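Researcher: Structure for this, please.
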Amino acid sequence: MRNPVTQLLKALYGHPDSVTMWEVKCDEDVKSVGFEAVGAEWPSDYFHKELELLLIVYVDDFKLAGPEQNLVKGLTLLRTKLNIGPEGPLGMYLG
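Model: Predicted structure, token format:
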């Protein structure tokens, strides 16, 4: 193999700026159900004051922490705007 590199003519996952488009949509949807951004230096981190929930979004992983009795309420709110799969074990978190 002489030259294993090729020019990428199309984005692998649809629109060339699909990542930014997803971030903007997700941010709008999360804020529309009562979560507020933690701050500019913490992108994709949100807090819901009423439910006392911290939400961290990493690509398509949603980590939600707070009082156990409010977790289902928070997920229900998020699912009104976003197609979120079933909850799973926490597993490794590299944030």
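Researcher: Any notable elements?
Model: The mean pLDDT is 88. Residues 51 and 70 are 6 Å apart (CA to CA).
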